[in-house]
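#structure-requests
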Amino acid sequence: MKTVLVTGASTGIGEACALWLEKRGYRVFASVRTMADAEALQQKSRGALRPVLLDVTDEASIREAAQFVGRQAPRLDGLVNNAGIAVAGPLEFVPLGELRRVLEVNVIGQVAVTQAFLPLLREARGRVVLMSSISGRVAAPLMGPYAASKFALEAIGDALRRELAPWGIEVSIIEPGNIQTPIWRKGIAWGEALKQQLSPRAIELYGPAIDGILHYIRGQDGKGLHPREVARVVEQALASARPKTRYVVGRDAKAGALLARLLPDRWVDHFIAGRRFGRQ
């Protein structure tokens, strides 16, 4: 039985990956941040899933989790770095502490977890999977902090893949588009809260853009792929004899990747402005 660790497994894509991989015969360690999340996840398990308390921003927590997994499994066949958060807002006014927080979780945390578990991965010639986003290719307005973290993660994935190649450790990057996860409902709450937090001048400048994003988010809620579709792709990255370096998941993500690759930046700007804010 192959063994895999999935981070950020309490909800959404991480939970779907943990449960799908367990169903497909993997022994799964699933990281969560609270005992309540651990108990909720274990109730959905078939018995081959073991929750692990892990905070990707806490070095001691990461070290303890690595020691725990190492005692249970002397080798690790896969690491799915899924844990992440979304922080958004106009870059002119976004609190720098919030920018640091999203980079700490989505970039530094991914590297810290990978460093801690690489000895176990090397024993098994295992795989590393990084959960990026189409936002790692196309940065939408007001999504700069989140997109910056995903662009950085794309670079981390490329460098890591080339560095680990001598040991046969493959690294794949997953780039989902619109997925049915709590992020859309959280996005609506974020937008409403942001309007309360910004200064009057910021609202004067960016209020219409925020309203446009909220309108777009409300229209997307419930329309995306089920997180299980991402989990299927993660399994491909873990099991394929020749895994791809990147997997783009969802028709909207594939369209975005194609636009970013083929069109000049100004054309992409125009397309995003019309799509997100109703401007032509």
